[in-house]
Amino acid sequence: MSDWDTVTVLKKRAPKASTMKSEQAVNAARRQGVAVDTQLKWGAGSNKQHVATKNTAKLDRETEELKHETVSLDLGKLIQQGRQAKNMSQKELATKINEKPQIITDYEAGRGIPNNIIIGKIERVLGMKLRGKDRGRPLQPPGDKK
Q1: pLDDT at 124 (0 to 100)
Q2: How far apart are CA 11 and CA 41, in angstroms?
């Protein structure tokens, strides 16, 4: 048997998935008459991190029936009195609780949206209760409940 009788077949590798999705591959398949199904992933092609719900948009318009809940004016007065008793500015208080000064301004003016975490931080820095039935009283350290 001679080498002339043997046949060597070189196989082409199957295309990778990424090349099958390329625009060139899709156009070639269309030219050959193959049925091509393309789908766009949900939210693909946009740079949106969070999608606002319809309720959020309604709340932002703030009609009479849908309004953001705000802190009461008496809470703002308590924060202001406690801050002034410790001789702090709004900026100093905001720095101590690691928040923006605008948040303290909004809370004292009664425009802030209540957040129990922020109110708790303010309570600890000022040393007075801002929530519950005994508002304005000194805050007891943890473990001293009687």
Answers
A1: 92
A2: 34
Integer angstrom CA distances of residue 53 from 10, 59, 60, 105: 57, 10, 11, 28
**Using an 8 Å Cβ cutoff, are 132 and 121 in contact?**
no
Q: How far is CA 102 from the centre of its chain?
A: 19
Q: Is the dihedral of CA 45, 51, 54, 57 positive or negative?
A: negative
Query: By C-alpha distance, which of 146, 139, 143, 102 is closest to 121?
Result: 139
Q: Tell me the C-alpha distance between 22 and 124, whole Å.
A: 59
HSE-CB at 146 with a 13 A cutoff on CA atoms is 4
For residue range 56-99, list pLDDT tens digits in order: 666 666 656 666 788 888 999 999 999 999 999 999 999 999 99
- Burial-class residue 121 by CB neighbours within 10 Å (0-12, 13-18, 19+): middle
Spell out the residues 6+ positions from residue 103 whose beta carbon is closer than 8 angstroms to its own.
94, 112, 118
